[in-house]
Structures are given as structure tokens and as C-alpha cells.
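just leaving the lab so this will be short. what follows is a protein written twice so to speak, once as letters and once as C-alpha cells for the fold. can you read through it and tell me how you think this chain folds. thanks a lot i owe you, the record is right below.

___
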Amino acid sequence: MISISLCLIVRNEEDVLARCLDSVNGIADEIVIVDTGSSDRTKEIALSYTSQVYEFEWIDDFAAARNYAFGKAACDYILWLDADDIFMEEDQVKLLELKASLSPDVDTVSMLYHLSKDESGVVTNRLRRNRLVKRERGFKWIGAVHEYLEVYGVALATDIAVTHASTRHDSERNLRIYEQRLAQGEELSPRDLYYFANELRDHSRFEKAVLYYNRFLHSKKGWVEDNIAACGKLADCHAALGDQELALEAALRSFQYGSPRADNCCRIGYYKLQSGAYETAAYWYEAALRAPKQEEAWSMQNTSCSTWLPHLQLCVCYDKLGQWLKAYEHNEIARAYRPDHPSVLHNKSYLEGLLVQESTMEQTSNLSFS
């Protein structure tokens, strides 16, 4: 059986740290916690779980802090988490099974990352990340912000999931770091151009986000999944700025980089629906349902766009086209995914009334008179 070092970098995590560490109880053989300047009870809580608590002077560089933590690990493999991540019970069982059976030939193990769930507990946003790596390989983190772990060798993809369970977020931190780097005259890498644009978009600075998404795409050096995602986010920025034509162009631009993705098909469907082109909108929502599923994708996946959402929108399209039975059928499929969604419940009541009325009219028209 392999041994596992859990490595975390933390700062003011008193509200979530114990929850995270409890979720790896009996799994991690050692816990390494690197504090980057907490002013709350974080270090006190950390010390109640492990004596390996270190301080690292924060230099606006996440990779530097994570590499420092990795350098303190001593077990066969290193598992990394953030303090607001947890393993759900079923994933704890899977991780223990993996620990007992993992071949020492494996250099890196990837796991799913569940970022959000709907009211029924169904995952709506997810991606895949390298989570467990062989220590002796000396893998390094790269990037001051939105850092990534550079790995190579024998890889294993698992269905074990890490669940992100954040209670708060320093929304200004990453944007501040990027702007400081630019102010110092640093030239951002293509990857940083993309993530800086994301930060600008998240802060509703849409015009500047458009500028940086275009710089990223024009560099022609981006990862293909980031290229596709950038087109969709660029479309959202144009839509927020009130330019539906440029929004449509940006969504269509994504097809240059790969097969149509469900989220961009939904975007195009939405733009057409807003303009009253209901048949065209229906085509694009159907295309979203036909789009290849990205089950093993490393990029962000909005599962709503390939499941219930297109059916809900198709219900709207077919209602507008007067095809109420077809609209009802799509709403019922959406209801199977989201049984308590207010729009789904409203549509069900509304369409059942129309169908009853339509049936009554048909019966009346078929009466025979003597």
C-alpha cells in the first residue's frame, strides 16, 4: 500500500479547515500545512491535526507556496487540496480503495473536481485535475495565479471527486495580483491572458475583458479547451455590453477550434430565441443535446447545457411555434432532471391546460349532428 502526504496552503481558513481535514481522516499518512499569513485561528486548528505546520511569507505567488509545501512532504505520493475542498463519504471510500491498490508505476492520478451543484445535489459544473502525484518525480507548480501542476509519465484517470465547498472567496485577490504584475511591466503569458480576462469578466469589467480575450485568441498559443471557453466567455461579454451580433459571432468562432460544444450551442440558441427565430433556436438547442459529451474533459463543464436546459428551452421554442405536445414532451424531460425547478413546474401547468383545451376543441369538432 502506498503512503500519502496531504499538502495544503492556507490563510484565514478557520471556518473550513477542520472540515477539510476530517474528510481525509484515515487516508492521509501525514498532513503538511503551509500558512501564508493567517490572522485567525487557522494555525491553532492546523496544529490540532498535525505538527507539520509551516509559515511561508506570501509573495503573491501560489505556485511558490505550493512548491514549498510539496518540498516538506515525505510519503510516496502527494495529495493536494484547498482548505475549502472536501471528499464526500463515497469518495473517501474510493480513495481508500485506490490507496490499497495503486500501482507504484503510476506517476499521477487525476480526479474530478465538483465546483457547484443544483438544489437537488446534482453536479452542474466540474472539471478534472491532477490530484495525487508521485513525490520522487519532483513535479512542480507553475504560475503565480491559477497555477497548474506540470506532470508527465504514467497517468491514471479516476472517478474519485473532490468537492469544492467554499463559504467565501477573496474575489479581488487574483485580479489584484494580475494588475500588479502588469503595472510592473510584466508581459503576461497566453495562459495568463486568458485567466486575467476571466477575472475581468467576473468583475463585470466587460470591455477590458473583451480586449484580453481577443489578445489571448490572437496569440494562437492557447490550449484548445481554453480557446473554446474563451469564445463562449467573449460572447457573454458582448451580450452583457448589449451587442448580440458580436456575441453570436464569438460563439460561432468557437467552432474553429473543435466540434460544437453544448454550452456554445445553447448560447447561439438563446440569441436566436431572443430575436424570435424560434425554428433556428430549436435547431441549436437540439444541437446542444447532440454535441459530444465531454465526460473526461479537463476544461470546465456546465452539465446543464447538455441535459435539462436545452429541453427547457426547446419547450419554449415549440410553445412559440404552436407545437404544444412537443413542448410538453421536452418539458417533461427537463422535469426528470429538475423536478422542482419553478419554470418547469409553471410550464407543466400551462401546457397541460393548453392540451386539455386543444383536446376539447377536437372532440367538439368531431361531433356528428342529425
